[in-house]
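pinned: reference chain
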Amino acid sequence: MTDTNFRPRRSCLYMPASNARALEKAKTLPADTVILDLEDAVSPDAKEDARDAACNALAEGGYGRREMVVRVNAMDTPWLADDIKAVCASKADAILVPKVRGADDIVEISDMMDGVHADSVLQLWAMIEMPIAVLNIVAIAKTAATTRLTNFVMGFNDLAKEMRAEQDRALFTPAIAQTIMAGRAFGVNILDSVYNDFKDPEGFEQECRQAKAFGFDGKTLIHPSQIEIANRAFAPDADKIEEAQAIIAAFQDPANAGKGVITVNGKMTELLHLEQANQTMAMADAIKAASQ
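pinned: its structure tokens
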């Protein structure tokens, strides 16, 4: 599995691959990740043209340090095989597969990717948007050890549809917890679902902060206006960075050599806090590098 834990994914913006203006605009946006969409945002009669447009845009480049992902069509569609072949031959960083149901799906897609380009470091991302995927989440996450799987992307719009439920985020709390725990147990990163009302920045910011508190690495977005809020919400703030620096410095002090518990700024601090501090600084450094 590719180690991508400390690559910033605060803001992951979906852009319709069939929209040339959107593909060009993405080059100027401060999103950490751009997801070129061949699935929901593209009508059936435009699928092939959208695939070509996405691959041409990736070949042309100009996206800088942004992570480039292509969401392909689902496994039960006639477009998937050609999507996989085209994207594997492109300059994408990852393929995002929708409607994943179980571990066998991950193995099958990963094997398809290996068959096209075995030497590629192309990642496999999986959308968790089907009830059966939530029930199978541990088995799905376990495949990360032997496949290209690196990321889960929650999809609550489709999950609500499949559950015949209203769009109530509280309903998805068990699915969120299960997916995050499975992801962390087996080294898979996790991105939160989209917030549909892009004209409600206050509600979006509140959901971003909740997602960060839950343990998500970032959020998928449907509109450029959401990028700045997501970037701010999922980045370590100044106080968090200062605290992390103090913890790291304290454990590096020769006077504390070999100690498992010390006091930092009046607080009992253990080695687990040192690990968290190192993670905070790694992400802060990665965000700084990505912005240069």
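why pinned: Strands lie at 11-16, 33-37, 67-71, 94-97, 123-128, 149-154, 189-192, 218-221, 261-264, 267-270. The radius of gyration is 20 Å.
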